[in-house]
Design brief:
The complex is a heterodimer of chains A (103) and B (233).
Chain A (H helix, E strand, L loop, with lengths): L6 H7 L3 H27 L3 H17 L3 H15 L6 H15 L1
Helix pairs in contact in A: 2-3, 3-4, 4-5
Chain B lengths: L1 E5 L3 H14 L3 E6 L2 H10 L4 E5 L7 H7 L5 E6 L5 H4 L5 E6 L4 H27 L3 E6 L2 E6 L3 E7 L2 E6 L3 E5 L2 H7 L5 E5 L2 E4 L3 E5 L2 E4 L2 E4 L2 H10 L4
Parallel strand pairs in B: 1-2, 1-3, 3-4, 4-5
Antiparallel strand pairs in B: 6-7, 8-9, 8-12, 9-10, 11-12, 13-14, 14-15
The chains are: A mainly alpha (103), B alpha/beta (233).
């Protein structure tokens, strides 16, 4: 099972250590609001908007090196547009993993 | 090259900024979380290029491109792989980067960007260096001659005879002087006494070339180079 990691962020950062800290700070700041928006739209069955929220969260999933997670999120984003919620539980597992890693 | 970054995701902006910084080739002037803010900025500022996210609330990247009258070069950045076809319908779009953008892909995109810019600059320089007309002194009058209409220039003692399809001009000058003023892709000195417009060549036989109705000698030493200038089958 893959775990969040900093390999991608380190590759971009090069020798700039402050970059790594800045990006994690921004992620910690933005992530709760993005998850909150998704949860609210999903529970209100506003799946099109929830799909947009997944799209936004997807970038953070990819930045934390979760390749399988990214595939699942991409699929979930598409399915939600059609009103299909099948992948919801698996997506929540990814969100929880990121939460544990960031905070 | 100066750029701005437009993306509603702060992490994405930071990564693009860092990639620009690492490259040492792109100077980030500013960044915007909304395309509308960026349009306001571009109303009073110019940049060479824009890193632009497609999916943004209320005003998308595509809306942004459609709004600008003369958009700068645009590199699209998106998590959506499925919009590439639509993206390249816009002339200003140079590249399409799928997030997360890695260093290797970003550098490739820079190569593309700079090669496009160089081609544009070269064509501008070529246009500037290739004037359409030349002014020549005929009987103390400066007469305007349309360069592409010249098909032959012949040296005659201290004078040159500039032949166009409409008229001939006898000018007190040398072949060397006029050759320096003519575009090299069009004119070639085939003989110590003749410069021809290569686009006007009708045929070549042994050591002569037929230009318009004039048969012009070709020096043996210049024939090889003349042949290189022709689009041979």
């Amino acid at each position: 099972m893959e775990e969040p990691n900093l390999s991608f962020i380190k590759e971009i950062a090069g020798e700039d250590e402050s970059f790594q800290n800045s990006i994690l700070d921004i992620m910690r700041k933005e992530y709760p609001k993005e998850v909150e928006d998704f949860t609210l739209n999903f529970s209100n069955k506003n799946y099109k908007e929830a799909s947009k929220d997944v799209h936004k969260i997807k970038h953070k999933i990819s930045l934390l090196g979760l390749k399988e997670g990214l595939k699942l999120a991409t699929n979930f984003e598409k399915q939600l547009r059609k009103g299909n919620t099948e992948l919801h539980d698996d997506f929540i597992k990814i969100l929880n993993k990121i939460h544990v890693y960031l905070y | 090259m100066d750029c701005i970054i437009i993306d509603d995701d702060a992490t994405a902006r930071l990564i693009t900024r860092q990639l620009c910084l690492n490259s040492g080739k792109i100077n980030v002037i500013d960044e915007f979380s909304s395309a509308i803010e960026a349009i306001k900025f571009l109303n009073s500022n110019t940049v060479d290029m824009v890193y632009l996210d497609i999916h943004m609330p209320t005003f998308s990247g595509f809306d942004f491109i459609k709004t600008l009258k003369n958009p700068p070069k645009i590199v699209l950045t998106t998590s959506d792989k499925n919009l590439a076809l639509e993206a390249f319908e816009y002339k200003s779009v140079v590249d399409y980067l799928v997030k997360p953008i890695n260093k290797e892909r970003f550098d490739k995109s820079l190569d593309k960007l700079f090669s496009i810019s160089n081609n544009v600059e070269e064509s501008i320089i070529e246009k500037k260096e290739t004037p359409e007309h030349i002014y020549v002194n005929v009987d103390r009058r400066l007469v305007k001659v349309h360069i592409p209409s010249i098909f032959l220039i012949e040296a005659k003692g201290d004078y040159i005879n500039i032949k166009t399809k409409e008229k001939n001009y006898i000018v007190h000058s040398t072949l060397k002087k006029i050759q320096d003023k003519l575009p090299t892709h069009l004119f070639f000195k085939v003989h110590r006494s003749f410069i021809i417009n290569t686009s006007e060549i009708i045929d070549i036989e042994d050591n002569t070339v037929l230009v318009n109705k004039d048969v012009v000698p070709v020096s043996r030493s210049n024939k090889g180079e003349l042949m290189k200038k022709l689009n041979l089958l």
